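User: Okay, second chain of the day. Same drill as before: sequence in, structure tokens out.
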Amino acid sequence: MPAKKKNVKTMPRRAAAKPVVHPAVRVAPVAKTDSSRFALYIYWLIIVFFVGATFYVLGRGYSIMNPVVDNVEISERMDMSQLSEQERIEIATRHLNSGRDKLVAGQAADAITDLTVALEAAPFSAIAFVLRGEAYMQLADYERALADLNNALRLDPDSAIAFYDRAMLEIRQENFNAAVADLGLALEANQRRPSDILSNHDIFSRRAQIMLWNKDWHGAIADYTAAIGEMAGDFRDYAGRAEAYTAIGQFQLAANDYLVAIAIIADQVQNVSTDAARRELSTNAQLFFEKSAALHVMMGDTSAARVDLESATTLANALGDTDTVIRLQKLIAEL
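Assistant: Same drill. Structure tokens below.
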């Protein structure tokens, strides 16, 4: 017997304006007439349009989520694997300089972003690790700062700046013995390869200050003396050494250092451009005159002490510090 014909149900045709846009879209069988061929053509034309539009939108979304920087697509981290060495160097240099500028401007978070890109492009850049460590220090993220400075020293054991910065980090954490040790290493590194931005004076002066805090009077005197030998124009070195001399009973040497510090300030006051700077220097000079007066009293030289207190009074008067003027006048009257 001949097979029975099955009833074929024709699928309802969808309106052309509402096609189903999907890669697995199926087209119902259509009778092969000229009109049906034309309808099929229009149907696929619409599908192609919507598929193209979909890819365009996806492409736009991808470009937004993955912006192009320096002609290199980045997501959360920049992919440097497809770049040439020269391209990586150029990117690293650009972001290193940008990161340094932002760090100087106090924009630590933005500096970290730039310096991270620089390190992705040039992972063996010790200076990038140093700068990013400094940025983390500004944000008080000491754990990351220490990791970066250690990486810098691993890459460049002669980086005096990295040793110095690590010492500054240790000072913030009140680990003074470690800071003294790192400043010693900074000096050794600076002797092997002198830095163009960190002087031996800076290192000696900073280490002397820590020794003063630790009451290592003789160590402070030695380092302040070395700092003065490197650069004799910093009044703070003389004032610091005067404190150490005072602590060990060397009153005359201390008074002499205060006098030199005041003389340096007198020269500097003539050259500063702001009233705030002049006031700060004058306040320091007033304090040093008072300390010198106290030393002269201990040495029994009341005449020299009176001269010192009168000079301090003159400065306090010029600063408009009435309370200090009254206090100093009482001390003069008691001599």
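The chain has 14 helices and two strands.

User: Thanks, on to the next one.
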